[in-house]
Design a protein that fits this description.
Helices cover 18% and strands 29% of the residues. It has five helices and 14 strands. The protein has a ten-stranded mixed β-sheet, with helices on both faces.
Length: 232
């Protein structure tokens, strides 16, 4: 790879509003529309996510992982274009490639990280990618896991959390790591008013957006917000 100039290095670490992280889910065809998503200022490919980048027509700023699932020809082309590639030994790293990619995105101090291609295929990877939302280093970042028209995010305690849905969309609230305390909702069909949602229970499944400003308040704990959109 070509060495970066001082100005290139400075530009590469400028803050970014939105970073896309692309993983390598085998069910993501790359044909689903992503036009409704905020456009990325930076793109990180987690190993085989480099193939998803090609299908989406975006060039990653960084490819990271043990690189056991990235086509060598794709990697060679990216490196020839001065895309940064960070290689990790498979038998020494503790993190998954997707975890490495999401944490690497923090170097640009983004407001929003969107993970694409992180759901489907192996159930263990899907669960790990969803539970990555609870990583303490991501506590102050809006992180969303997207699969088609479905989105998973983590409510932040002590504030109103916007639900990224429109009237008619399905909303599910699931506590993780313990009970969710003091849950209140706005503009959802079945309202909650400072109530607990208990871990392992399905009370928060299949609510629905009923107004223009859907939000969820959380006093304490961790609460996944799952949105299924009915349309664009």
């Amino acid at each position: 790879m070509l060495e970066e100039s001082d100005s290139d290095q400075e530009n590469n670490h400028k803050p970014a509003h939105c970073v896309w992280v692309l993983a390598a889910s085998p069910i993501w065809s790359g044909q689903e529309s992503v036009d409704w998503l905020p456009r990325p200022d930076r793109v990180v490919a987690a190993d085989g996510g480099s193939s998803l980048a090609a299908r989406l027509g975006v060039v990653p700023d960084l490819v990271i992982g043990d690189l056991d699932s990235s086509p060598p020809s794709v990697l060679a082309e990216l490196e020839a274009s001065s895309v940064e590639v960070r290689r990790y030994a498979h038998d020494t790293k503790w993190e998954t490639d997707t975890e490495l990619a999401v944490l690497a995105a923090l170097q640009w101090r983004p407001d929003t990280i969107i993970l694409l291609g992180g759901v489907g295929g192996r159930l263990d990877h899907t669960l790990a990618n969803v539970l990555l939302l609870t990583h303490p280093k991501l506590a102050e970042v809006d992180v969303r896991v997207i699969e088609g028209r479905q989105e998973v995010s983590l409510a932040k305690p002590g504030r109103w959390n916007a639900v990224n849905g429109k009237v008619g969309d399905t909303v599910t609230l699931l506590p993780v790591g313990g009970d969710a305390e003091g849950v209140s909702t706005q503009d959802l069909l079945f309202p909650l008013k400072s109530e607990p949602l208990l871990e392992g229970r399905g009370r928060g499944v299949s609510n629905q957006v009923s107004g223009p400003n859907p939000q969820v308040w959380l006093d304490g704990g961790q609460l996944l917000i799952v949105v299924l959109r009915i349309g664009a």
